[in-house]
Amino acid sequence: MPDMExxxxxxxxxxxxxxxxxxxxxxxxxxxxxxxxxxxxxxxAAKGAITQAALAEVARVKAQTMGTTLARLELHGxxxxxxxxxxxxxxxxxxxxxxxxxxxxxxxxxxxxxxxVAVDTARLREELRIVVRGLAGLPGPEQESxxxxxxxxxx
Length: 155
What we know:
Layout: H1 9-29, H2 35-47, E1 50-51, H3 52-59, H4 63-75, E2 79-83, E3 91-95, H5 97-113, H6 121-136
Antiparallel strand pairs: 1-3, 2-3
Helix pairs in contact: 1-5, 2-3, 2-5, 3-4
């Protein structure tokens, strides 16, 4: 990649994000998952059964995009979708035991993505959290003590 020293920060960040996602998706492919699927499963692991619309909102994707992701996860037995008892137009999504197992394996694979790179991952995570909070208008860490980190596996 020519002359990265002169790239603006936004280009470095977007290029790094694409490269990480490509690498992670390659690893996830071996267990039948995608990055988008893992994000959905992490939200479900943290929040429990929720509607497809709520899941899309938390994951910050369009409902149609989430529908495609969930169809693939459902096909592989990682989630179930059932019509809501209170609103027959919506579906409640639940993580299955197979989904919990696959998510645990995905978390292990994620550790391998940055392993060949000499970077302080703890510091990188903190800096990225600051960027995400700032651009998404989210509260700082002192204000979110009651929120669940959907980026970490839940027991």
